[in-house]
């Protein structure tokens, strides 16, 4: 029955609730924190079950993020990303059909480390005008990798955070563009996840219990975002991305 609460230990519930709070916080203030939630869910639940349960909670967080930052999105960037993200989601679906959990984690970790290095190099070099073709290649690359990583492990947040960071967005523009991006991408992912059996009655029962924790994290994040300094925000994004990559590689 849908209302029946899953039977888990007190420690397991504590970890899942913490993960749900981090999901909400990541959507409205601290991009990258959702990858910590990925780790917590994977520590408690089987890999496939954790992916499906987390996707629904991420969508709840997306709704709060869109509501909070709906006026700050870079619509032109979102339009450029859409086709390449769809390619990445399709590639991720095919990859999930053949890869094991270790292969998935290590592949994403390697991608993140490569993108971190690229982002740091771009930020240390003097700013110069990039040809339109060059910008399209960069956007397309991030889009494909973002779609791929979000499909296989709900780990697209760090990839796209690096792209928005490299674009030198303000905090609100960063969070607004990310909000609309992941709201759309997670909607697209849902039918694929259902067809793969990642979302089912068991995962939905778990989500019903954890939704209030996501809401609490999202509301706390809105208050935090008004107070955080731009430089602190950027360093936090990079630090969490490095930690995410290290976790996935170990």
TrEMBL record:
Q: Where are the transmembrane segments?
A: 51-69, 81-98, 104-121, 142-166, 178-199, 232-249
Q: Which UniProt keywords apply?
A: Cell membrane, Membrane, Transmembrane, Transmembrane helix, Transport
How is it placed in the membrane, per its record? Multi-pass membrane protein
InterPro entries registered for this protein in UniProt = TM_pro_TauE-like (IPR002781), TSUP (IPR052017)
Q: Where in the cell is it found?
A: Cell membrane
Signal sequence span per UniProt? none
Pfam families (alphabetical): TauE (PF01925)
Extract the PANTHER family matched here.
MEMBRANE TRANSPORTER PROTEIN YDHB-RELATED, TRANSMEMBRANE PROTEIN YFCA
The similarity annotation says:
Belongs to the 4-toluene sulfonate uptake permease (TSUP) (TC 2.A.102) family.
Write down what this protein is called.
Probable membrane transporter protein
Which lineage ranks, top first, belong to the organism behind this chain? Bacteria, Bacillati, Actinomycetota, Actinomycetes, Micrococcales
């Amino acid at each position: 029955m849908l209302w029946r609460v899953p039977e888990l230990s007190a420690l397991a519930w504590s970890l899942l609730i913490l993960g749900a709070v981090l999901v909400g916080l990541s959507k409205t203030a601290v991009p990258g924190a959702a990858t910590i939630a990925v780790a917590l869910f994977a520590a408690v639940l089987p890999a496939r079950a954790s992916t499906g349960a987390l996707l629904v909670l991420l969508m709840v967080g997306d709704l709060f993020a869109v509501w909070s930052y709906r006026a700050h999105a870079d619509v032109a960037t979102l339009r450029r990303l859409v086709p390449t993200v769809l390619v990445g989601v399709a590639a991720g679906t095919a990859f999930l059909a053949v890869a094991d959990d270790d292969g998935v984690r290590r592949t994403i970790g390697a991608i993140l480390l490569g993108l971190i290095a690229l982002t740091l190099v771009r930020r240390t070099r003097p700013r110069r005008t990039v040809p339109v073709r060059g910008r399209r290649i960069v956007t397309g690359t991030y889009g494909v990798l973002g779609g791929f990583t979000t499909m296989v492990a709900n780990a697209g947040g760090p990839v796209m955070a690096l792209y928005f960071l490299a674009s030198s967005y303000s905090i609100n523009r960063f969070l607004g563009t990310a909000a609309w991006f992941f709201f759309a991408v997670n909607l697209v992912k849902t039918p694929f996840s259902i067809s793969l059996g990642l979302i089912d009655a068991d995962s939905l029962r778990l989500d019903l219990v954890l939704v209030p924790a996501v809401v609490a994290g999202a509301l706390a994040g809105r208050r935090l975002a008004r107070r955080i300094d731009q430089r602190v925000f950027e360093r936090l994004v990079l630090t969490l991305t490095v930690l995410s990559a290290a976790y996935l590689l170990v």
